[in-house]
Amino acid sequence: MSMDSDQDVREHLLVVDGDGGENEGSEVKFRIRELRKWSESGDPILNGVSVDVPKGVIVGIIGPSGSGKSTLLRALNRLWEPPPGSVLLDGRDICEIDVLDLRRKVGMLFQLPVLFEGTVADNIRYGPQLRGKKLSDQEVHKLLTLADLDSSFYTKAGSELSVGQAQRVALARTLANEPEVLLLDEPTSALDPISTENIEDVIVKLKKKQGMTILMVSHSIKQIQRVADVVCLLVNGEIVEVLKPDELSEAKHPMALRFLELSS
């Protein structure tokens, strides 16, 4: 884990308490304030999450099943509609941003890749084409390289790909929209170790070379320790700990400790 300065990474990501205090220092990409969501039966899924996510940082989100990790992630590009004023991107309420524009800025990769009909190149060109831009062959090849795929994939169909290869094509397709933020919802849970390593390498390169802000949900603590700059522990819809990856053993919250013990 590396940062551009020696300043403790926890100063770059601040869980805000009820007084609404502001994060000082690093430029904030996402500002989340009292984000709440309830199930259809009225049970809380997110219970007032407040956190600042700085620009250019990989944030790992871990916690027990059912703790609200994916729900938190999906609020950030309006896969469900958060309450007005609860999620700000670059200081602007995401509820006031056109949802297609928002999803170009805030791309998302899911557990299982779903490719469209046609070739790999057709898939990569899909997003830009929706807004009237046709990517050149050179631009498609560049995106393939960025996703750790060689030029031979250009004309392949989705049916010819392994799950790991398809996931990297899905990543290239997301990157074709030139997102500022990447949301990753357990993107390697269905992949073999080599494919997992390939995806992790791409994630780290996107942060280092492009300064991309990345939020990643993972069931693997070891994976989060490999790629994240800072880790949020989510328990029962609340962020209960914010730690550096190598300090997870220092968690103090009882349920967070229990989760870490069982997952190690």
From TrEMBL:
The keyword Nucleotide-binding applies. It comes from the Eukaryota. Residues 30-261 form the ABC transporter domain. GO terms for biological process: phosphate ion transmembrane transport. The keyword Nucleotide-binding applies. CDD domains: ABC_PstB_phosphate_transporter. Keywords: ATP-binding, Nucleotide-binding, Transport. It holds the Pfam family ABC_tran. GO terms for cellular component: membrane. One of its GO terms (molecular function) is ATP binding. InterPro entries: AAA+_ATPase (IPR003593), ABC_transporter-like_ATP-bd (IPR003439), ABC_transporter-like_CS (IPR017871), P-loop_NTPase (IPR027417), PstB-like (IPR005670). Belongs to the ABC transporter superfamily. ABCI family. PANTHER family: ABC TRANSPORTER I FAMILY MEMBER 17. This is ABC transporter I family member 17. It comes from Morus notabilis.
